[in-house]
Each structure stands twice: as C-alpha cells, then as structure tokens.
Give the backbone structure.
Amino acid sequence: MADTVEDVYRHAGFGAPVRRGARPAIVVVDLSRGFTDPAYPSGSELSDVVAATGTLIEAARAQGVPVVFTTIAFTAAEADGDAVAWLAKAPGMRVLREGSDAVAIDARLDLRPEDVVIVKKGASAFFGTSLAATLTAMGRDTVLICGATTSGCVRATAVDAVQSGFSVLVPRECVGDRAAGPHEANLFDIQAKYGDVIGVHDALDYVGKLHDAR
C-alpha cells in the first residue's frame, strides 16, 4: 500500500508542533474591503472569516494581547504605472489605492486607535515593513495569523514570521481564499513546514488561558 502524503511528510521530519509562547500577538492580514467585498476584482465572500477573526480579536483584547492589522495600498503612481512588478502579474489589485474604500479595514472588525496598521506593497506582512520590529518592541514571541488570502498573503506572512523568529499559529476558520483548492493546499504546507494550523476554538482556549499578556 502506498504511503499517504501525510506519511511522506512525517517520514521527512515535517509537521512537529510549534512552541506556544506566553506573549502572542494577533496579526490580521489584509481583511480590507478590497479582499472581503466580492464587488472588487480582488475580493471574495469572506464573511465567515471576518466573523471568526472578530471573535478571536475580542478574546485577545480581554487578555491584553495586541492586534496588528495590515492592508495593501498603492500610490496613484504605483497603481497606474510599472514600478510594482507584482501588479503586472495581478492587475486586479490596482484598485487597492491609498485613501480608497478598497484599502479600508472591513468595518465589521473592531479596529481601534491603539491598533497598529501596517501598510504593505507585497504579499508578506513582513517584507518591506516595520512588522518584525514592531512585534519585537512589543515583546511578542508568537503570532496568530488571520486574514486573506490563504494561498497568498497569509502563507507569505507565515513563512516570514517563522523566519523572523516567531512561532506561528494559523486558526483555520480565520483565514480564507477565493477557491478551496489553493486554500487547503496552503494550509497543508503551513502545517507541514512553518506553523500549526489549529481550530479557532483551540486558539480561543490558548488566548483565554494566558495571564495578562501585555
């Protein structure tokens, strides 16, 4: 009988559980209207993801866990020109213009004045941004990554997070994509190599058992 994919990866030494630190942060990747509103070319129906993420944010705040949001936003020159190579491959994201409704964090999420909002130009929330320095300054050791899309910015953020020294947890219900295939494939890859893909109830239990994590 042929080995399953899981057997192959287990034999190769992948999929061990990550350390769960005592000072996590929630990183909400690109749950802006441009990604959560299907009316935008870059958007899709992510109401369940937004709701699950909102529940986790509420629980995190109660324990003093900081919440960091990211959004992709391009200047007019970037959106209309050739300076951003990524936009040649993904021209639907040219609608993500600075100051537009498309780059605003989804209003269903509890964005507060004290929350850090990282503006980025690429897939990873770490690439070309201050996120690693911000998390380090906050004394964080673990990131719970929520957001969209699983196959794009979530995966890229998970890779850069572990490469930056943070343990990675990805609550399955808190991430989403435009199609099931890429979503599931990338959750498998994250679980195998970069972090733990967990249920949102596990994430809530982890956060809820923390002593004040400020």
Strands lie at 24-29, 67-72, 116-120, 142-148, 167-171, 175-176, 196-198. The first strand starts at residue 24 and ends at 29.
